[in-house]
TrEMBL record:
Compartment(s) of residence: Cytoplasm
Molecular function via GO: methyltransferase activity
Keyword Nucleotide-binding set for record: no
InterPro entries, per database record: PUA (IPR002478), PUA-like_sf (IPR015947), PUA_sf (IPR036974), RlmI-like_PUA (IPR041532), SAM-dep_methyl-trfase (IPR019614), SAM-dependent_MTases_sf (IPR029063)
Domain PUA: 4-92
Keyword Transferase listed: yes
Name of protein: RlmI/RlmK family 23S rRNA methyltransferase
Domain of life: Bacteria
GO biological process, one term: methylation
Family: Belongs to the methyltransferase superfamily. RlmI family.
Keyword terms: Cytoplasm, Methyltransferase, RNA-binding, rRNA processing, S-adenosyl-L-methionine, Transferase
Amino acid sequence: MHSVPLRLKKDQERRLLAGHAWVYSNEVDTAATPLADLEPGQAVEIIAQRGRWLGHGYANPHSLICARLVSRRRSQPIGAALLVQRVRAALALREQLFEAPFYRLVHGEGDGLPGLVVDRYGDLLAVQITTAGMDRLQPLVLAALEQVLRPTHIVLRNDNPMREVEGLAQGIHWVLGDDPGAITLTEGELRFAVAPAGGQKTGWFFDQADNRRAQHRFGPARRVLDVCCYLGAWGLGAAADGAESVAFVDSADSALAGVTANAERNELAARIDTLHGDAFEVLRALRDDGARFDRVILDPPAFIKRRKDEREGTRAYERLNRLGLGLLAPGGLLITSSCSFHLSREAFLRTVQSAARRTEHELQLLLAGAQGPDHPVHPAIPETAYLKTFFLRALPGARANDAD
């Protein structure tokens, strides 16, 4: 990619020197390098106000994050060689971590490839490109993946809403092989059918795998509620551990059909029930019916997608946890998650505690989980540490208040 200079204002290089990789539009010296002159995805060399060279990156003048730094070595510009090197490094980590080839292979900034996500299902790769710069590199990205992994199938899951923010078209396209339909992956002792071209995200949520396994250490729970269950990984794990009954809640009929099929696949169908509808409405109906569960699992989609949604999204998290706690039996376990990177770990815990006070529960935090190691966090980019999962015990003896 042919690159052009992108010059920063005075003292705006400090975050980049500390390791961050994003440049915001208000940090650019637009007199020296007018953003209007840049094309979306344009390769740039990021330069401090006094001329210090900072790195190779790419720009998008129409985005608040107007540039992303990709390489800090002047001799290593963005191109085929760099992409192959980064993919190989990503693969080496996963091969250390996993026996079976089912994992997130590339995780954006965490793997030095901002704007690129690749999930691996054996010989099938599901690829998401979310930035204009990486979109320009798409042919080189696909070539690097083919060179390093020799897959038989690649699907572009470019239906992520982030593409709209970057001014990119959305769609799902097979670029290698045809759609094989549902494939089977294993998590622990369980088998799940997944559709990489048709499910949520890229078909599976690998980021919660370690947290789902962690619930086993708390032993079997007799009655379990799995809210926003998708294909049932949390609840079926609880059923396999010995739960007598598991109720699954989701707003998508297709997800609940997947739960039923996966339960049958693992000979657990006799223990499950599915409840279709909006999570808040279903939880209120269960509360009104006097239902109680020994374990309540809340794993909703991100309620805070943009900074301006933070206040309303935080209220939604509190409301959901309040309803979940209202269904929890004394001594029961609440497993609650947020994947909103705009909501910090500390703020999310405060939100759950606020819900507990409203329902007059006393909670003990037993375990705090995060995304798995195939979703590496960039130490200088706190936004990459997005997943929070808390395991909290409701102390026996506290009186639950049914306030909505």
